[in-house]
Amino acid sequence: MTTALLSERILLEVAEHEGLVLEAYKCSAGVLTWGFGVTNASGHNVDRYDTTRLGHRSSIERAVEVFEWLLRTKYLPEVRRAFRGRDLTESQTAGALSFHWNTGAIGQADWVQSFLLGRRERAWSEFMNWSKPKEILDRRKAERALFFDGRWSQDGVVLMYDRVNPKEPRNPVWRSAREIYIRDEVRVALRKAGAA
């Protein structure tokens, strides 16, 4: 089996680990962020969603569309390069892609090199070397379980934060979180990508 294409299941898995904010906010590192964790460094201008500077909130559909586009055109090719053409299952692709979306470090990750050398137990252990800040620990464990054991955690539901503090540090208002289903939006984005 070749490395999986970007599937509905993969998109939903990565999205569930991220959460969704429809206007620009500052992440824990102080970087302007939007959607499913998108920053300007991705190549998509998130300043347009900064409501403090006359930007506007996006739609859920637009956030999913940009998310799919970045995963397909930037992050998935980098995951494939890191694994040097090695065949990956859908669950391995999803686990590695979620890890890379969050860290941007699939090409430098020690666990990837150990996996490629056939050192599965060592790779399993090294996966947790990427667990800072401590708030990321549950995500990293879920990604590891997905990559090494094929255990999926997604169900089409993501947490969406409806509000962002208008004053610095411009964090999402955590109590404004609510669960939403995005399966339909993901299907539409994948159809558009397939038609392009």
Q: Can you tell me about this structure?
A:
By secondary structure, the chain is an alpha+beta fold. 45% of the residues lie in helices and 12% in strands. The protein has a single domain, classed as Lysozyme, CATH 1.10.530.40. The protein has seven helices and five strands, in the order H-E-E-E-H-H-H-H-H-E-E-H. The two termini are 25 Å apart.
Write the layout of secondary structure elements.
Layout: H1 8-18, E1 20-26, E2 32-35, E3 38-39, H2 60-82, H3 90-103, H4 110-116, H5 120-126, H6 137-149, E4 157-161, E5 177-181, H7 183-195
Parallel strand pairs: 1-4
Antiparallel strand pairs: 1-2, 2-3, 4-5
Shape, please?
Answer: globular
Radius of gyration: 17 Å
Overall mean pLDDT stands at 93
Which regions contain 5 or more consecutive residues with pLDDT less than 50?
none
Named CATH architecture: Orthogonal Bundle
**End-to-end distance:** 25 Å
What proportion strand? 5-15%
Helix/strand-derived category reads alpha+beta
Q: Give the helix level as a range of percent.
A: 40-55%
Largest pleated sheet: 5 strands, mixed
Instruction: Give me the strand/helix succession.
Output: HEEEHHHHHEEH
**Count of individual beta strands:** 5
Instruction: Give the helix tally.
Output: 7
Q: Order of strands across the widest beta sheet?
A: 3-2-1-4-5
**CATH class, please?**
Mainly Alpha
**Overall tally of structural domains:** 1
CATH topology: Lysozyme
